[in-house]
């Protein structure tokens, strides 16, 4: 029975833990109330959130997403713990640790253990000002972007410091500065080694000004504006150095209720420091929304941004991604899911390729990705479910011989039934 009482706390990580460690600011009192009222597991003055994630455990018929498929059984086990220490009504200390193990049955050399951790603090002073700071070290084995099919070990290590002013109505205004170091592991492919560390290792630093105005309970209108500097580690990749200005505005809906998530659209201006390189300016977006109407659940995601390319002669590509999903609750313990995702990667600079006759030519590359996913989710306890899924992913490109597809059949643990 004690184990069953602990299970509901796992779902709270998505409602509380992500807010303390994420990029969206939440007023000090809301975070303090969430920790004290919703986290049931305590050890002395410490509040503890455990979480166990099981992702993509099953059969993948093309684990490297290449034109010559290699199949395997795979899965990721990812336990996590978050510990909070609230001190009276003016200080929150936090710590998290997240080891992960990525498993392959046949491709044993691809098995890897990683660990991520972080520390954070928030201090309320003079009743209205909040000073926050954090350190993070995040190491994962995952797909770097839609451009690369292989899983890559990447490390993100950095710091942030913020100062916000809050009003009695929970309106807030503040600034956050950050420094982040990004490192990538090199990978072996059938065509040879890709030296990602030399191409993409970099430092990102900058700051963001944010304003939040409460529209309704735990729902906010927000505006943000920021500057980011990109400085690459290798001298051979110094031509990639750049800076950008970006601004967003939108609505952040409550953490619970009929509609959840964030609607966010903005504008970005990306400026390479090297002469003659293509600039980017235009619409960007970071939107994730979900809604529940009786037996029907709906999901909508939209994303647009420029992404650094791992190709040595290509600077970046512009990725547009739209995803939608539909859930139908057959019973109180069984749900049917369908999800569809479509994205394009547009390369603004020409790429050099060889034609069928062996003659080199230059093309303006466009890649297209489609994913269909069908699944059944069985409720295990409260909002925790076990999902059985089948998905088909297709990748088409203007590059000769680059078309490919993959299917996956497996299970996932889900914490939002």
Provide the fold topology:
Layout: H1 2-10, H2 12-21, H3 28-38, E1 41-43, E2 46-60, E3 72-87, E4 91-104, E5 112-125, E6 129-143, E7 151-166, E8 172-184, E9 187-189, E10 192-194, H4 196-200, E11 202-216, E12 219-232, E13 242-252, E14 259-272, E15 280-293, E16 296-308, E17 316-329, E18 334-346, E19 351-354, E20 360-363, E21 366-381, E22 384-397, E23 404-414
Antiparallel strand pairs: 1-2, 2-3, 2-23, 3-4, 4-5, 5-6, 6-7, 7-8, 8-11, 9-10, 11-12, 12-13, 13-14, 14-15, 15-16, 16-17, 17-18, 18-21, 19-20, 21-22, 22-23
What does this structure look like?
- There is one protein chain.
- The chain is 8% helix and 65% strand.
- The chain is mostly beta strands and 417 residues long.
- The chain has one domain (2-414): Porin.
- The strands form 3 sheets. The protein has an 18-stranded antiparallel beta barrel.
- Helix 2 (12-21) packs antiparallel against helix 3.
- The longest helix is centred in the N-terminal third of the chain and has 11 residues, at 28-38.
Task: List its traits.
23 strands, two-stranded antiparallel sheet, 417 residues, globular, 18-stranded antiparallel beta barrel, disordered N terminus, mainly beta, Porin, 8% helix
In short:
The protein is built from 4 helices and 23 strands. With about 425 residues, the protein is mainly β.
- The helix-strand sequence is HHHEEEEEEEEEEHEEEEEEEEEEEEE
| Number of continuous helical runs | 4
CATH architecture: Beta Barrel
Q: Rg to the nearest angstrom?
A: 22 Å
User: What composes the largest sheet?
Assistant: 18 strands, antiparallel, barrel
Q: Give the end-to-end Cα distance, rounded to a whole number of Å.
A: 22 Å
**CATH topological fold name:** Porin
Give the helix level as a range of percent.
under 10%
| Chain-averaged pLDDT | 90
Strand content: over 45%
Q: Which residues form runs of ≥5 with pLDDT under 50?
A: 1-23
SS-based class: mainly beta
Shape summary: globular
CATH class category label: Mainly Beta
List the domain count as a whole number. Answer: 1
Number of strands: 23
């Amino acid at each position: 029975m004690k184990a069953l009482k602990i299970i509901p706390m796992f779902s709270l990580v998505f409602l509380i833990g992500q807010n303390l460690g994420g990029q969206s600011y939440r007023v000090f009192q809301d975070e303090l109330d969430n920790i004290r009222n919703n986290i049931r597991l305590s050890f002395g003055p410490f509040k503890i959130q455990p979480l166990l994630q099981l992702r993509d455990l099953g059969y993948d018929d093309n684990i490297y997403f290449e034109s010559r498929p290699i199949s395997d059984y795979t899965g990721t086990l990812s336990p996590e713990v978050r510990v909070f220490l609230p001190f009276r009504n003016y200080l929150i200390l936090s710590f998290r640790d997240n080891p992960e193990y990525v498993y392959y049955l046949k491709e044993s050399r691809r098995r890897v253990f990683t660990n991520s951790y972080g520390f954070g603090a928030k201090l309320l002073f003079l009743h209205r000002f909040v000073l926050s700071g954090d350190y993070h070290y995040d190491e994962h084995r995952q797909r770097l972007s839609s451009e690369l099919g292989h899983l890559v070990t990447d490390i993100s290590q950095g710091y942030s410091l913020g100062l916000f002013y809050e009003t009695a109505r929970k309106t807030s205004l503040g600034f956050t500065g950050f420094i982040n170091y990004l490192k990538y592991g090199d990978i072996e492919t059938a065509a040879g080694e890709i030296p990602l560390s030399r191409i993409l290792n970099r430092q990102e630093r900058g700051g963001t000004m944010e304003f939040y105005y409460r529209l309704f309970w735990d729902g906010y209108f927000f505006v943000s504006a920021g500057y980011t500097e990109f400085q690459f580690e290798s001298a051979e990749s110094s031509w990639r150095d750049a800076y950008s200005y970006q601004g967003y505005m939108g609505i952040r809906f409550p953490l619970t209720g009929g509609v959840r998530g964030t609607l966010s659209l903005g504008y970005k201006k990306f400026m390479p420091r090297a002469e003659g390189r293509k600039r980017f300016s235009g619409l960007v977006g970071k939107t994730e929304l979900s809604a529940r109407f009786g037996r029907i659940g709906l999901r909508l995601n939209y994303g647009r941004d420029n992404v650094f390319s791992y190709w040595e002669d290509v600077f970046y590509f512009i990725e547009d991604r739209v995803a939608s999903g539909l859930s139908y609750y057959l019973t109180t313990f069984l749900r049917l899911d369908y999800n569809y995702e479509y994205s394009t990667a547009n390369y603004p600079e020409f790429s050099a390729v060889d034609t069928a006759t062996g003659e080199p030519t230059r093309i303006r590359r466009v890649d297209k990705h489609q994913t269909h996913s069908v699944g059944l989710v069985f409720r295990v306890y409260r909002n925790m479910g076990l999902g059985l899924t089948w998905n088909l992913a297709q990748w088409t490109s203007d590059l000769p011989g680059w078309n490919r597809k993959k299917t996956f059949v497996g299970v996932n643990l889900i914490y939002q039934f």
